[in-house]
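User: My instructor asked us to take a sequence, write out its structure as tokens, and then describe one feature of it. I'm not sure where to start. Here is the sequence I was given:
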Amino acid sequence: MTLTVENGCFSYDGRHTVLSDINFSASSGEILAVLGKNGSGKTTLLRCAVGLLKWSSGRSLLDGKDVSHMRNRELWSKISYVPQAKSSFGSYTVLESVLLGFGSSISIFGKPQKSDAEKAFAVLKRLNIENLAYKKCSELSGGEKQMTLIARSLACNPKILILDEPESNLDFKNQITVLDVLSKLRDSGICCIFNTHFPDHALRTADRALLLGDDGKCICGKTSDIVTEENIQKTFGVNVKISSVTSGDKTVKTVVPVSTV
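Assistant: Let's start with the prediction itself. The structure tokens for your sequence are:
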């Protein structure tokens, strides 16, 4: 399954352009990272891409079908949107929260069945957080909240997973945990699209990257071609050096900020 954006433009007031001529596609078994400065429109881009906001011009296509012409039930059975972990969970347990993700498959007057609970627990096991099943969401740490949101989004077996800054406000361990989960989901055939403040995370995880500039326009391509020292300097106004670090049998690229431009 492929999500494609063609010539996407967006303005909140019709005068000030936030996004201009956005073009990209992301397919099954692929991770796309969206990068840009604070206020550049990363979250707006994600919301427009899946129809939560309406493009001022341009369109989003899901396997060639215009997202704006799809019924909500059809669209959200194929795409899941994961907001930032600061979202409220209420007094639900983790298992109950994941059961909410079955909303598109449980009728409006229906109740979750035993089989639904078993499927929800299986999702928790898939993410190795089954130990949290009966813990109140109000008692979760930031990392646990983010993993719970991802679990809930997987309840309807989406083909495409959209994540809004999934590693923000997490400590190092939880950042890596979330990124590793995205890699495993990609390897299982899911398309993952996430926005991030961290170029390192794009280099570590993403197959392709999209970089938003101050003018609302973007460049998109293979991550190693997009997340370069030159492009980061132009976009973020920071001189950086990109290097590789090896520990044991694992090598990762890291972005070291040197100075502002």
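For the description part of your assignment, you could build on this observation: Residues 104-110 have pLDDT under 50 and may be disordered. Try explaining in your own words what that tells you about the chain.
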